[in-house]
Amino acid sequence: MLHHKTLIGFISLGIALPTLAQDPPQDGGIWDQLETSTELKWTDCYNNSQCSRFQVPLNYSNPDGETASIAMIRVPSPLAGTDQYRGPILLNPGGPGGSGVELVAGAGEVLSQLLGPRFDVVSFDPRGVGFSTPRASFFPTEAQRQLWGSPAFDVINATSDGLARIWARAQITGALAAQQDQKTPLFEHFNTENTARDMLRMVEAHEEEKLQYWGFSYGTVLGATFASLFPDRVERLVLDGVVDSENYFATLWSNNLLDSDKAMQTFFDGCFEGGPDLCPFYEPSPKAIERKLDELTRSIFLRPVPVMTNISYGLVDYARLRATIAQSFYSPYSDFPRLARGLADLVHGNGTALYQMLEMPVFDCSCGTPVPLQPITDARIVISCTDGQEIRDTVDDLEIYVRKLLRQSQWGEVWATFRIACTAWPNQAKRHFRGPFVGNTSHPILWIGNTADPVTPIASAHKMAQGYPGSVVLTQDSSGHSSIAAPSTCTTRYVRDYFVNGTMPAEGIVCPVIAPVFSGQPSSNGTGVDGPRIARELANKETEDDQEIARVLQRLREKFRVPSPF
Asked: pLDDT digits over 466-494, tens only?
């Protein structure tokens, strides 16, 4: 057994942690009204976007059999029909299970500003995900999903039986998946290879020969799979926040945390450098800030703080505190200032600000009332467990596994739940592509990694790039998950030049960010910082275009962040 005093301070977030991305779209009912077609028939939706339902084979081994309907969305280029038009750039926000519809509905116009007017900004909900049908679901009703669904914050060390309890719940989830899939066998078709094949069909439906793509996090697994299957169909491929695809398909989840402790350290260092005016959790040294957080964590473990807001209620307990900290690693420029305020308030017994960082409305069942098509979260487990090698770990096996992760990082228990979730997954033939990850692509791939990415270390980018001749790894010197988590005009320019001209950066380039994490006051919408210090630093030494890039990047961080798979 994993003894509590050995692991105090280490937690597991659980696979069902609420994901904070852009605001959810407000026009979800449109998907029930759209006709599914093998052609792209675009209909206005979500303010300035267009939507379409695209038909693909459910099983590519039987292309004339059952079909799937892929929800697609775009912000069209204003230059379409001119000689300046460069076609669509497909995006995947990560996950697995992240919604491309939500990405573009919330941040499509900002992404269009970032990439320039020559491109359509296009995304989609992968098969089984979001508004695409059929859906990956373990439950016949939303009420059952909410009543059983894994606790918001699975924590191995919250109780003496924490690991065994999470494992036991995974056995039931696996049994529910098997039961549901026996009725209508679908899950084996919800895999990364099939989604890569769907993307090729999307390219062809746009009357293009080759793919232009920007994938984040799990989206790099999808992009690398495409590059391996169809190396001659690559026009531009930016893989940002790179996952080791071999490790992913082996269901190991064992090398993601190489830089996660660095992400925590950037909070301590940034808070100290920002000073008490910018960081309310300030102490006279980074080490003192770390000790203050340790003391607060111990206090909350023993005495949770109750919170009521106008949309929900709950506790700031040990699990929620640690989950909130880990979530903030993904988007430090947006979340570290809020985290500092929340921690400072919590020291004085006020948990509201910290609670609201991961707040979700209380579930309200409209029993008996038809519910319109809406995203569900089951696809996260379905895709990762279907993709991965079959595993049947016992609790004893997992104790050894968790200890190995803890030797890599203090956040080892956070990551263990990914493997645990697949321990009772239904038997599958596993005929889909799982490597090798090699390919002489028709245009070199641009890989991007941050120096302190909490879950996709820069080492994974260098490893993956070795399989694709001509690839270049661009390093961004920042914390956060993927390049858009931090403001770097340098990185943005390289991405733009790559898409427009195919220009590759020189090997070994490290792009700086334009300002520290603690750079200004909380923004008016409460999502991050407006960045007055960023503006001041840019004013005297950067071009007007750089200043505009910085403003666009700030808006992008407020609209979208790579989904957390916790």
From this structure: 999 999 999 999 999 999 999 999 999 99
pLDDT in tens, 187-208: 999 999 999 999 999 999 999 9
Residue 300 Cα distances to 88, 271, 348, angstroms = 49, 21, 12
For residues 371 and 364, is the Cβ–Cβ distance under 8 A?
no
**Residue 416 pLDDT more than 90?**
no
Tokens of 109: 């116009």
Residues 326-373 have pLDDT tens digits of 999 999 999 999 999 999 999 999 999 999 999 988 887 766 665 567
Burial zone of 206 (CB within 10 Å; 0-12 exposed, 13-18 middle, 19+ buried)? middle
Distance separating alpha carbons of residues 440 and 445, to the nearest angstrom = 10
Residue 12 CB coordination number (10 Å):
31
Residue from 166, 296, 356 nearest 174 by CA? 166
Q: What is the pLDDT of residues 366-410, one digit of tens each?
A: 666 655 677 788 999 999 999 999 999 999 999 999 999 989 998
Pairing of strands 305-308, 211-216: unpaired
Phi, psi at 554, each rounded to 5°? -65, -45
Helix, strand, coil distribution of the chain in percent, nearest 5: 40, 15, 45
pTM score of the predicted model: 0.92
Residue type present at position 534 = I
Residue labelled with tokens 């001659």: 232
Neighbour tally for 231: CB within 10 Å: 17
CB 29 within 8 A of CB 51: no
Superfamily of structural domain 28-134+188-253+433-559:
Alpha/Beta hydrolase fold, catalytic domain (3.40.50.1820)
Q: Determine the pLDDT at residue 544.
A: 78
CA distances from 360 to 102, 130, 151, 326, 476 (A): 17, 18, 13, 17, 32
Residue 170 has pLDDT above 90, yes or no: yes
Between helices 544-559 and 100-115, what is the axis angle to 10°?
170
Contacts of 407 (CB under 8 A, 6+ apart): none
Length of the chain equals 566
Q: Write the CA distances from 310 to 438, 471, 534, integer angstroms.
A: 52, 50, 34
Residue 132 and residue 56: Cα distance in Å, rounded? 11
Least confident range of 237-251, 296-310, 546-560 = 546-560
Burial of 561 (0-12, 13-18, 19+ CB in 10 A): buried
Contact 444, 472 (CB under 8 A): yes
Torsions phi, psi of 316, nearest 5? -90, 95
Question: Would you list the domain boundaries of the chain?
Answer: 28-134+188-253+433-559
Q: Which two tokens stand for residue 411?
A: 């956040």
What angle in degrees, to the nearest 10, is found between the helix axes of 286-302 and 318-328? 150
* Spacing of C-alpha 431 from chain mean position: 26
Q: Which residues contact 475 (CB under 8 A, 6 or more apart)?
A: 448, 449, 450, 451, 458, 509, 510, 511
Q: What amino acid is encoded at 176 in this protein?
A: L
